[in-house]
Amino acid sequence: MRKLAWAAGAFSAACFLAAYLLPESWLLPCAAVLALLGAALLLLRRKWLRAAVIVSFAAAAALGTFRLHEYLTLDRARTMDGETRPFTAVVLDYPDVYEDYCRVEIRLKAEGAPALNAILYDRSGTLNNACPGDRLEGSARLSSTERRYGKRYDAYTARDIYLLASAGELRVSGETSFSPAFALRRLNRLLTQRSAEIFPADTAAFFQALMLGEKAALYEDEALYVSLSRAGLMHIVAVSGMHVAFLVGFLQLLLGTNKRSSLLCILLVWLFAFVSGAAPSALRAAFMQTTLLLAPLMKRENDPPTSLLTVLALLLLFNPRACTSVSLQLSFASVAGLLLFSPKLNELFAPKDRHGLPAALLRYLGSSAAASLSVLAFSLPLTALYFGGIPLLSPVSNGLVLWAVPLCFGGGYLACAVSFVLPAAGAALSWLVAWPARVLLLAARLIAAFPYATVYLKPHMTVLWLLLLYGMAALARFTKASPRFRLLLPTAVSLAALVLALFSARAVYRSGATISIIDVGQGQSLAVMQGDSTVVIDCGNTYNSENAGQITGRYLLSCGRRQIDLLMLTHLHADHADGVLRLLELLPVKELVMPVDPNDEDGLLEPILASAARHGVPVSYIAVDETRFVGDIRLALFTPGLSGDANERCLTARVSLGDYDMLVTGDIDKAAEKELIERHDLSGTELLIAGHHGSRYASSGEFLTALGGSTAVISVGYNTYGHPTNETLARLDAYGYTIYRTDLHGTVEIRAA
Question: What predicted TM-score, i.e. pTM, was given to this entire model?
Answer without folding.
Answer: 0.90
